[in-house]
Amino acid sequence: MNLAPPAADALFEHAACGLLATDADGLILHANATLHAWLGVQAGALAGKLRFCDLLSVGARLFHHTRCVPLLQLDGAVNEVQLDLHAADGRRIPVLVNIARRRDGDDAAPVDHVAVFRSTQRHAYEHALLEARKVAEEALEATRAADLQLQALNLQLTAADRRKDEFLATLSHELRNPLAPMRSALDVFKLKYGNVSDERLMQAFERQLGHLTRLVDDLMDVSRITQNRMQLRRGPVELGPLVRGAAQDMAATMAAARHTLRLALPEAPLVVDGDATRLAQVVINLLANAAKYTPDGGLIEVELLCADDHAALRVRDNGIGIPADALGAVFNMFAQLEPALDRARGGLGIGLALARGIVDLHGGEILVESAGPGLGSAFTLRLPLVAGCATPQEPAAPAALAAPMRVMVVDDSLDTAETMALALELFGCETRMAHTAAAALELASEFAPHVALLDIGLPDYNGYELARRLRALPVGLDVTLIAATGWGQEKDRTLALDAGFDHHLTKPIDFEQLRMLLG
Length: 519
Hints:
CATH class of the largest domain: Alpha Beta
CATH topology of the largest domain: Heat Shock Protein 90
Oligomer: single chain
């Protein structure tokens, strides 16, 4: 019979009472640490070497009995037997002992015995109790130390994650500043000169600028999602035209890689409740991902259909495929597949993570399948359909400006201000520029603009304060204030509206959107 407790059972080993087990002949099989400490011997010194009676003083006696008896030969249970134990240093330790016998049958001889010793000396009991308490306190202290270490690590990870999100948001803002004049210059060139002798140069410039703008937008949006700050502007969205538009946006990218893009769209409208801009962003990211991971001259197929009251969009390619052990990680932030890195087309590794975050906010899901490396992959987007929802009307084309308008452009970047002013002049506007908030206040009193485009990060004081001071001027009561900034989070829009702005535009500014606001 194996009576040895588990090594981890500290409470058994350091119990306030002594514990031992013997075989039928009284040979000690196991004794706990408390009993060893009482006797002043090393752990393990008793088991298999001594018999039970070797521990007892010659004068062992029973309550109400005056003669000595062989303790293990008593019939029945023995309760509250008082005896003395021999310590190694000659001390006698008075104890009370209870013995339990185990038999195979009612009339069978005992198989083994278990004895429980309780010291009648207060100091021995207190010593054992203190040992047990010490063990428990050490275990508790170790647990507390581990908890504190985990809390410290959690705080470090939280702080690092917050710094990462702040870095992404700041990086996106800083990248928007040089993008704004580039976008404006391109739009001005197209408006002023129309067709040029070599359209390929303009197309390449516009394609790469659009790609860079999307990367910056993705950085900003992924920061919003990780901070739970992305807000959807929901409404009925027909997916067929949205997918077709996304495919058109990606046409230049597909052509540059000599990919064949096939669309299979249903005739019946599939309408979902969602944010059209965000859903288009998801589709573009899926198409961009397929193009990136497919060798030049590949085939990319897009199919939109209705399945189980859901719209299902499937994007399949015959590209490099995904290993089975990487399928679960493709939606993780900054995830990359090694072959794409070798081909220098890895990107930032945030497109799929952003797509999944947006789809989750819409109550949908995105799934991935691949038979393995070299066998292509397929991504399936599922969104719940809206029953009985009318197909949204196409937005009306923006009307021309009714009359010339005076527009004040305030930006500390000379390039940004000049390109914006040039574009506005092509719309028929009269423009004036200022590069500081103080200069803008002086110019506003003299120029009396109908519209003011204000940058937020000005050198003297920010655009929010400038908006408040403009509103306090007589000429500022009726002026339309438009924030033109690289900060595009929802909190930035709220700050702009609270400061007195009428509209908030994120750089690089969409000229058609600006034209609609001017109208």
